[in-house]
Amino acid sequence: MEPNIEDSAVEEPFQGIFGLTSELSVAQHFVATRDIRFTQKEVADATGLARQTVASVLQKFVRWQVLASEQRGRERVFYLNARSPLAYALDTLVGAIVEEITGTEVLTRMDAPEEFKTWNRDWLLEQSGLDSESYWREFARPATRRTAAA
Model-level pTM? Predict the structure, then answer.
């Protein structure tokens, strides 16, 4: 059965599920425009939020390393931090929401940061209780054989 999803949820995937907050508006803006750098004023204009509100959110996101910033002339610009596991998780979440809403695969997503891949691998090994070689033998190779045999 198809979910009953409002049209606004397709345009604003975070808000369609989680509601409207300043943080979600800013996060959604940066995920949708991940390779572009924005000033505080540009983010405020794009999200419709007050500049003071945007300043607070930007500061929080830089502190949590979701965003990175750099000086451009007299202004500071902000952009999605491609090395951040949190930014990667946000990007993945938005992609999954859009795919669920539209039924269409999102073709462009962030690559997982190297730190995230290492953390994820280490976490999986810890949870499995296996060393790297045993994990590979137990999980990865059998799946490869099943695929090849099918």
Answer: 0.64
Nearest to 34 by CA among 77, 91, 86, 95: 91
**Whole-angstrom Cα distance, residue 8 to residue 108?**
21
Would you write out the chain's pLDDT as a tens digit for each of its 150 residues? 444 444 444 556 666 677 778 998 898 889 888 889 999 999 999 999 999 999 999 999 999 889 999 999 999 999 999 888 888 888 888 778 777 777 777 666 677 666 555 555 565 566 666 676 765 565 554 444 434 444
> Nearest-CA neighbor of 79 among 66, 92, 68, 88?
68
Sequence-ordered list of residues with C-beta below 8 angstroms from that of 32, at least 6 positions apart, any chain: 94
